[in-house]
Amino acid sequence: MLDRSNFVFLVVPCSLEELEPLLEHLKLNKPGPHDDKQSIVFSRGTIMSGGRLDLCKQVVGPQGIQPLLNAMKQSSVINRLLLGNNIVGLPGAQAISQYIRFNTDSNIDTWYIAGNHFDSECISLICDALATDTKVKALWLKRNPILASGIVHIAQMLATNQYLQTLDLLNTGLLDEGCEILFNAFKSNHNLKHLYMDTNGLTVKSGHI
């Protein structure tokens, strides 16, 4: 039997050429589908009803995120970006934070950016942009290595953000330390309605917070 235990599987980002059909559609502000039975499917990405742009597991990568966000600025259709598992890393965090901070006409109220190699530094950029934001109501961050050091930035954001309603921190390495930091932030935030934080190595200690 083949031993796969020492194999290294490399994820190769898609080319800009593969993204181009989607980007062109967004730049021209073409309409979206009326229902999910008529979803508009591209070589990379799918536009679904309700303004959802699904790019999960499409390997947009660090080079593709800025062209994508630039194109999205021209579209009045997209209001939910599903960008899970796209390894955009620090360049992605920088681009997303700039989009949130400076795109005053943004329609994006949901950022599903799970599994994108976002660490504490990346999260600090995004949280700084969200500190006084009044557009984003859902932030999905599952499977990013945020750790307790990154939760510090999320806690600071929650102290001033009065609009965010959904926060997903599933499997982000909080541990008890991060949980305590997070829950202390809720003392000054009464707007968050939905919190997901499964699979974070929490113990009985967190149950007493």
TrEMBL record:
GO cellular component: cytosol; nucleus; perinuclear region of cytoplasm
Top-level taxon of origin: Eukaryota
Sorted UniProt keywords: GTPase activation, Leucine-rich repeat, Repeat
GO BP field: nucleocytoplasmic transport
Keyword Magnesium among record annotations: no
Entry GO MF terms: GTPase activator activity; small GTPase binding
SMART domains assigned: LRR_RI (SM00368)
Keyword Secreted recorded: no
Matching PANTHER family: RAN GTPASE-ACTIVATING PROTEIN 1
Protein name: Nucleotide-binding oligomerization domain-containing protein 2
Species of origin: Rotaria magnacalcarata
